Every structure is written in structure tokens, then in C-alpha cells.
Amino acid sequence: MTEDTDNGQGQIKRTLKTRHLAMIALGGTIGTGLFITSGSAISTAGPGGALVAYGIMGIMVYFLMTSLGEMSTYMPLTGSFSAFSSKFVDPALGFAMGWNYWFNWAITIPVDVTSAGIVMNFWLPHVPSWVFSTIVLVLVFLINYLSVRSYGETEYWLALIKVITVIVFLIVGVAIILGIMGGQPVGFSNFHYKKAPFVGGIPAIISVFLVAGFSFQGTELVGITAGEAATPEKSISKAIYSTFWRILLFYIFAIFVIACILPYTDKNLLNSDVTNITMSPFTIIFKRAGLAVAASIMNAVILTAVVSAANSGLYASTRMLYSQAREGYAWRFFGYVNRRGIPIYALIGTMVVSTLAFATQFVVPQAYLYLTDASGLCGFIAWLGIAISHYRFRKAYTAQGHSVSELKYHATLYPFGPIFAFVLCTIVICGQNVEAFAKLDWSNILITYMSVPLFLILFFYYKIRYKTHIIPLKKVDLSRRTKGEKYDPEQN
């Protein structure tokens, strides 16, 4: 997009290519959820239960991505799904959705940089972890400060490291299963070992939904990047199609390999902490194949994963704050874009909040934990908003006399897709901590579900103050622009 030379303000630049978008979505999901906590899913529900849970969650994420793809290719806006909620459902939903998502990432950034510091202590245990965390925090700020292209390139290469690691792991794992490496072939005996393949029944599978859901969060980043994609009509659909199959293949195949080699009773599968990388299923299996430096290699990969997560988190929260300002939901200066195409004040504002959240661990550690827990369900709330927005978008599109064939990208199995995603996300949110409800552990309930009342407070505050209503289908604004941001499809 061109710069506005009249007022000295630039505009968001469309410089992200298809390969950037694909790797941003892919890198956003391949992280500690796969490398470390995937083992806990096998331990909880058995090999069969883990595969079923990840498979169902993967299908749901696919529906969500195609829903987001249909809306984003039609209307490629920065901070897309918050703007979609405002345009297709209710301005109050867009207001709450945008602030919910911004809060989620702004609070997650310090968690990721803290993890980076812990990971660095594996090699340099005598240096305080906060030193490394501060370096990573400054690094991701500089990457996002330079240009959107620098962010895209950084994510591309960080994601590529993770992808190569997973591919090598799968090859090594298959070799171990077949007995080519590591001694005798292990085969599939673990799938009928003791209570396997299904352990704990349906409740265990539902609990693994939560693990799987957190692992898959980040796929929606491809929607956030829509406003800065060079050719959104083509690149978004390609990125969604290729990314989904890669993610599903990596997760399902990786869990299958881990389950074949390590029985669900193996205590190492319970590890879910970056402080103990030597107990990661990936590390154990690499060691079994004879790779002596497996722990160091996996530690380096985990480091790229948490740096990538922090980098994407700062990008996503900055663009969402920018979008909120353009929609009139935040102070207008957050909508300012410099000549390099960076929403500079939104970037600085987000950075200040993330830095303060990071600093709370030095003053009141418990307060920092509460902030972290408060962001726990924000991602699922965002997914709910995407499902609702897409259902309403398609209804409004046809109600206003348009034909579905006019759309350049079609979501899969509408209306089943968004309805299925809505139901499953609701189940996951409600089932987040059933045990706390059973025991009436109110403090635990408050910590677990803190993000839900925060979202509702935002929603009803805006709804009551501005007396908003659900927009009638005939009056839904299907124009391809948001407040303060123009989009010319001829540019692409």
C-alpha cells in the first residue's frame, strides 16, 4: 500500500509472501506443545485416546482456518477476526474480541521470554535467567520495529528449524520402530499394552482436547497477517491448505511414533517443563537412536520455539491494538503507522505492557502467575469469535443477494464447520477444570476461568454503554474496508 505523504503517516505494507504466511501459521503451532507436552497426552489417554483427541481437534482447527480463510480472502484486514466480529455480528463482540486477543498475547510474551531464559540456563547455569530473557525481549522488539518483512523472514527461518527437527524425528522414530536403529524393532506392541490403546475413556480424551487445543493455538495468526499479505486472495488460501495438512501430519505422526516407542506408563511422558529438556520424548528417542548430544540439540530447538512464540506474540498483539484503534475501540494514536509500515505506537504500547508484566515476577510472583492464568482461555474465546463471525458472514452474504460462487475461497462444509468448531470450543472452555467445580475449589476456578469473566465484562460494558445490537443480516457491512483503513483489490 502507498504512503500518505499529506500527513507524514505511512500505511500498512503488503510485503508478506505465501511462504511467510505458511511458515508463520506453521511455526505458530509447532512449539513446546509438540516437543514437550505431547507426551502427557499419551500418558493421560493412552496412545489411541491421544490420537483421537488430536485428530478431532485438528479437524476443528481446519474448519476454523477455512472459515477465517473465506473471510480474510474476501476482506483482508489487519487484526481481521476482531474486525469481522464488529462488522458481521455486533460491535460489542468486536470490542471484546480484540482486547481479549491483545491481552492474551501481551501477557504471553513475558511467559515466552522467561522460558527462553530458563532454556539458556541449560548451557550457562550460573548466569541469571532474567539476563537472557531481557536480551530476547529486546531482540523481538527490534525485529518487529524494523519492518513486517523482517518479522516474516525471522519467522520463516525459525519455523524451518522446527520443521526440519520434526521431519528428522519422524524418520529416526520410524527407523527405531522397524529396528533399523536402536536395536530390536519395537513394532506396535504399546498399542495393546495393559489398558492401551484407550486409557481413562471419554473423560481422558476430553482432558487431552485441552492439551491439543493449546498446542494448535497460533494457527489464527494467518488471519492477523491478512492485511500485510502481498496477494491475500491467493496466498492466504494456499497457506491455510498447506499448513493444515503439515500440522496434522506432524502432530498425529509424531504422537504415533512416540506412542510406539514409549509405553503410556513411562514416567518421562509426564514431563511438561522446559527446565527438564532431557526428559522430552524427542530427546529420549533421539538418544535411543544413538545421538549423544540429543539434549543440547533439542534445547536449541526449544529455544527457537519460544523465541518464535514471543516474536509472533508481539506482532499479533501490535496488529490487534492497531486494529482496535482503527475501529475506534482504542486511542487513535495507536492506529498511527510510520513510513516503514509499522504501527509504531501500538508496538511501543504493547511492549510497555509486556515488559511490566515481565517485571512483576521480581516484585509479586503470585500476581504474575495470575496474569498468566488469566490468558489461558483467551485463545479459545478467539476461536469462538471466528466461528460465530463466519456463520454470520455467509448468512449475510447470501441474504444480501450474493452468490457463494462469487467468493474466491470457500470454507469447507459450511455451516457444519463453524457450528462444529463453536460446539467443541465451548466444550473445551467449560471442561477446562471440571475437578475444581466438583470440589467447589473457588480459588482454582477463579484462576482457571479468569479470562471468561474478563471477556464478558468487556462485552457487556461496550454493549450497555453504546446500546449495540446484533446487526441484522441485511444491514451487515460487506464493504472491503475497516474504519481508517482502505483496501483496493486492484492493487493485488
From TrEMBL:
Compartment annotation: Membrane
Keyword Transmembrane helix part of the UniProt annotation: yes
Superkingdom classification of source: Bacteria
Ranges annotated as spanning the membrane: 21-42, 48-65, 102-124, 130-148, 160-181, 201-223, 244-265, 285-310, 342-364, 370-391, 412-434, 446-464
Main location: membrane
Topology relative to the membrane: Multi-pass membrane protein
Keyword NAD (UniProt): no
InterPro entries for the chain: AA-permease/SLC12A_dom, Amino_acid_permease_CS, APC_YAT
Keywords: Amino-acid transport, Membrane, Transmembrane, Transmembrane helix, Transport
Domain Amino acid permease/ SLC12A: 20-470
Protein name: Amino acid permease
Record organism: Limosilactobacillus urinaemulieris
